[in-house]
Predict the 3D structure of the following.
Amino acid sequence: MFMLMSHTRNLHPKTEHDGPSKLPDEMLSFSIAKSAGPNTVSPRLGALIIPRRKPIQTPHFLALTSRGAIPHISQDTLRDNTNVKGVYLALEDCEAPFFNKKAPRDTPPIYNLPQPSHPTPDNSPFRKFIAIPNDTVLLLAPRRVPPVACPAANTDQSISILTSVGFRRLESEDYVEATRNLLPDIVVGIADVVYSKGTGRKRVDKMGDRTSVWTQAMVDGLITSPDDDSDGPAAANSTSGVRKESHPAVFAPILPIERGEQSYYLEQLEENMMEKISGLAVYDSSVTVDLPEGFATLPRLSLDEPANPHSVLREISLGIDVFVLPFIGEATDAGISLDFSFPSPPDITRGHLPQRPLGINMWDVGHANDISPLREGCKCYACRNHHRAYIQHLLAAKEMLGWVLLQIHNLAIMDEFFFAIRASITCGTFDVDMNTFERIYERELPEQTGQGPRVRGYQFKSEGPGEPKKNALAYKTLDDTREKLAEGVTPSPNVEAQDLEDRGFAEKSQ
C-alpha cells in the first residue's frame, strides 16, 4: 500500500540523486525540505519519492505523452538522451471506455494484456504496453492536457472524453477498474470540470458534489484500511484484495472554483479521505491560497496549463510542486528552440535593454550557415552532436529528426530551468530572481513561420462545416489530361495579352 510520509531533511540541488529510490516497498514519500515562508502559499523545496523510481526533486515537471509516448521521442531516446523523471498519460488516449460488453471486439488492446497473478506497479501491464523505462514515474489521469472540450455534458456517473474513435463517456466505476488493471504509480481522481465559459450556480454545485462522490469511490475501490476486514477471508485471498494492497497513490482533484463553492467536497476530503490520498491535482493554482491547512504536507500537481515560464514561476510562488507543461511540445512543433535561463545572466540584468525572446525560430534561413549549437553551453544530445544549420536543414526538408532533436533540447532546457529554481529557493532569492526573469524575457514564444508536424484529430475540436483544413495537402493530383485541355482552350478575342503569354500562346512584343 502506498502511503504518504512528510518529514523535513536537508536538501540541496547539488546533492540530488537520479538513481531509483530504495524506499521500502509500497510507500510514496513526499518531504518538504524548505518553504520560503510560514504560510502554505509560498515556494517550497521538496522530494517526491516512489520505490524503485527516479526521485523527483520538486519543483519539477512531468513530460506529457500522446498515445503513450512523448511526442517525437522514442522510448530508447527517452531512456538514453533525456533526464525525464516521470510521464503523464491520459486514459482517453487508450480509447476508453474500456468496458464494452455489447461490442467486445472494440475493447482496446491494452486491456487484453494478461494480468499478473500478484499485480503491482512494478509489473504494470500499462508500463509494459507503452515500454516506459522501469525507473520512470508513471502518472495516469482521465484526460489530456490540454483537454478538448466535448459537446456532451458530464453526468452524475460519467465525464465526456475524446478518444481516437470519437467522443465517448468514461464512467467513474470504469475509471477505477481501469486503474486496477493498468496499475500506474500515481492516479489522478476523476473530476467534474467544465471547460466551457459561463458556468451557472447550479452547475458549480454539481461539480463539488459529483467530484466528492467520485473521489470517495476511487479511494474505496483502490485502497482498503489494514483494519478493514469486513469482506472476510475470501476477500483477502481474492485478486481484487491483492490489487488493493498494491494500489497506486491517489491524487485528489481540486476544482477550479472558489473554496466556498467546493467547501463540502474539501471537508469530505479532510475528514473522510485524508489518510487515503497521497497528493492533490489542482486545476487552478490560485485556489491553493484558500486550501485547508491540513493539505499543506501533500504534494500538489498543477493541471492549470501554464502557457510560459513566467506562469510556471507564478504557480511555484503559490506552492505548486509538480507541473505538466503543454508549451514544451508546442514550442517543438513550431520549430522553436527554447533559450532562456534562470536566474537571468548578470550581463543582461542591468540596464534597460529590450526584452529577450524565450526561444529561437529554427525555420529562419539565417541559421542555414550557422554551425553553433542551439545554445552555447547546453549539454543536451542535440547541442553536443549537431548545430543550427543541420537542424534548420532538417526542418526545411520536413525530416522528423529535426523535431526529435528540438524536443530533446527543449526538455533539457526545462530540466535545467527547474534545477535553477530549486537552487534559488535554497538560497532564498526566488522572489528577486522571478522578478528579474519577468523583466528580462518576453512572455510569448516566437511566432511560428514554418509548417510543423501534421495536427492529429484529437488535438482540436471540429468547428463545423466550412472550417479550414488544419493540415496542408501533402500531395496534389497529377492529371495531365486536364492540364492539356486547359491549355488547349481557344482564347477569346478579348483576352489580355499577359494571359496569352502566361499560357504559352504568344509573347508580347517589346
Notes: The two ends are 89 Å apart (CA to CA).
